[in-house]
Amino acid sequence: MNRLATDSACQPADLPALHAQAFPMLTPALIDRAASHGEIISVPAGTVLLKSGECEAAFYIVLEGYAEVLECEPGGAMHSLLMHRDGEFTGSLDLFTDRPNAVTVRADSPSRLLRISRAALAQLLLTERELADVVLRAFMLRRIGYLRQRPYGGAILRSAMPPGEEDSVLDLTVIGGGPAGLAAASYAASEGLQTLLVGGSLCGPDALREDVLRGFPGTITGLCGGGLLRRAEVQSRRFGSHVLPGRTATAFDEACYPYRVWLDDGQMIETRSLIVATGMQKGETPQTAGDANTAWLDGCLDTDDRGYIHTGRAAAGSMQARAYESSQPGVFAVGAVRAGSDKHVLASIAEGAAAVRVVHRFLDASAH
């Protein structure tokens, strides 16, 4: 198998830019546009805004004061990860999933904050594209960089190898660099899976073309830019992951296991599981969707007549299939490419994140 290639332009020198994008300061104009979607609250120092392990969550913009983000260490002590100041905001991709809060957030001083509920945030991001670009970029990068902040080390990779050796078979390959694919790769990498993200039809030179974006209602243009993926690669490299933003998949071999995927540069990837997040082609009008981007699968999966992948019980011959799992065990579909999905950006992010849980269950079962 060819060794994974990476973009040499992405070097550790990009880390200051990564931090600026993961923890941006909102302009007064953006805060004003968000204000009608929430309420301004004043809290004393020590007030817990979000509690680790609970599902109740909200989005906070710090107007005055400080909001501290803490993580519970294995022994129960709380460790400070970072401090948000005026103009910065709390939150991560977990706001769009059913996962419990991963961290605790508390006011470190008497503070004024703009509180926006989970539902109101979803509506805000769908109507305010400039704000959505800033927030979703930050959420993606925070998830990818999460382990770097931990005081007690990163997650244990499932494919543990002796020092100096590398397992050439990946735990997970994600095909497609749109919102669903980015979310899936972010969660998988941060949870210790050896992950490869291959940029799909929504990335690359055509990412910002309006006719492409028409086929994906709610897409935020900045999510697919090469700059975001390059910065994501800086972090993902640190715990055994790779990003190939300029590549696309051309063929899939389901007849052997681990599965094999060929890329447009001739590389062949071996992987224990696969998430397809290649989206859909543009429709004839902005209101219509085109066919799914699944021609490269060459009929290996059960799809409808427009190429959208059936999953779960809807997949032919797969009465026992897990959620998001296709007719091929260990091959999953998320986002717009999945038959019956809600085709907008926030739903795609949620599916990408949720599918990683199912990938863990498949890998655990296949290991035994």
Automatic annotation (TrEMBL):
Transmembrane segments: none annotated. GO terms for molecular function: ferredoxin-NADP+ reductase activity. Gene3D superfamilies: FAD/NAD(P)-binding domain, Jelly Rolls. It holds the Pfam family Pyr_redox_2. The keyword Flavoprotein applies. Keywords: Flavoprotein, Oxidoreductase. Signal peptide: none annotated. Its EC number is 1.18.1.2. Residues 22-142 form the Cyclic nucleotide-binding domain. This is Ferredoxin--NADP reductase.
